[in-house]
Write a structure and sequence with these properties.
Elements lengths: L7 E5 L4 H12 L3 E6 L2 H14 L4 E4 L5 H15 L4 E4 L14 H29 L2 E6 L2 H4 L6 H21 L4 E7 L6 H8 L13 H11 L6 E3 L7 H7 L1 H12 L1
Bound molecules: NADP nicotinamide-adenine-dinucleotide phosphate.
The site of NADP nicotinamide-adenine-dinucleotide phosphate has 28 residues, from α1 and α7.
Length: about 260
């Protein structure tokens, strides 16, 4: 498995939720972590915590949907630390659940953050990783990408694109020392997870509920391994099989579970 100690790791969306947990846990394992997000106040408190665990760690205010700026920040990190060994493309947005967003701009905004920023980050760090035959990229997807339900057309589409991009690219990097992963976290009570509940999503069943700690520890255990998908709630990966075999019953089940 991948040796986190001594590595240089970049985590996007590090100001809260899963990204904050990934940053803290990697710093605790001895990685030099650089956490990126937009909210400066939250990054400042994360910065203090990760520096206590790993003194060369830091944070950078960066809106990853500004892909030019994101690529430049990755270049600066590479220049300062000599390399990037791990990139966790975790930053993500979900438009408010409810009516189908009528405005194309919403779909573009979600794609810019969830998909194009992930592509930009991945393509920026990949050449260096391939040259060194060493690296891990974890792209954070969602079960909404492989088994979409109602009220998440923009979000689900962006995560489906992210998953397909990562899986396809993983064939091209196979055997070259660079490991690409797609993370499916299940449902986690972060700001994004609880906002969905507040907007009317029913509480997901226990078997797909996970904590930030559980997801982060799983990522640490699996990164660098042969499996592309990291499934925090493995039961969820059966959904596409159910859809293929029993499409009518599957749709009924999704409607019932998401009403
Ligand atoms: N919670 C769940 O149940 C669940 C399930 C499946 C997948 N996920 C995925 O997990 C990832 C993390 O989400 P979370 O659940 O931890 O929710 P969260 O607490 O709301 O975290 C989202 C993070 O993304 C950052 N972010 C959003 N837009 C950004 C941008 N343009 N540039 C830089 N950072 C940006 C936010 O920071 P700033 O606002 O400070 O920029 C925040 O740190 C997301 O990709 C989400 O889709 C979550």
């Amino acid at each position: 498995m991948f040796e986190v100690r001594g590595s240089v790791a970049v985590v996007t969306g590090a100001s809260s939720g899963l990204g904050r947990r990934f940053a803290l846990d990697m710093a605790a394992r001895g990685a030099t972590v650089v956490g990126l997000a937009r909210r400066q106040d939250l990054l400042a408190s994360l910065g203090e915590e990760i520096r206590r665990l790993s003194p060369r760690s830091s944070t950078v205010v960066c809106d990853v949907s500004d892909t030019g700026r994101f690529i430049a920040v990755l270049g600066d990190i590479d220049a300062e630390h000599g390399r990037i060994d791990v990139l966790v493309n975790n930053a993500g947005v979900g438009p408010p659940r409810g009516e189908v967003p009528p405005d194309l701009a919403v779909y573009r905004m979600v794609m810019e953050t969830n998909y194009f920023a992930t592509v930009a980050g991945t393509l920026a760090v990949l050449p260096g990783m391939l040259e060194r035959h060493h690296g891990v990229i974890v792209n954070v997807s969602s079960d909404s990408g492989r088994a979409p339900g109602p009220h998440e057309a923009a979000y689900g589409a962006s995560k489906a694109a992210l998953s397909a991009f990562t899986e396809s690219l993983s064939f091209d990097t196979e055997g070259r020392g660079v490991h690409l992963h797609v993370l499916y976290p299940g449902w986690v009570p972060t700001a994004m997870g609880t906002e969905a509940l507040d907007a009317g999503m029913p509480m997901p069943p226990k078997m797909v509920r996970r904590t930030e700690e559980q997801v982060s520890q799983l990522v640490l255990a699996r990164m660098g391994g042969a499996k592309v998908d990291i499934d925090a709630a493995p039961i969820a990966k059966l959904a596409p099989i159910g859809r293929a075999l029993f499409p009518g019953a599957y749709r009924k089940g999704v409607r019932k579970a998401t009403r």
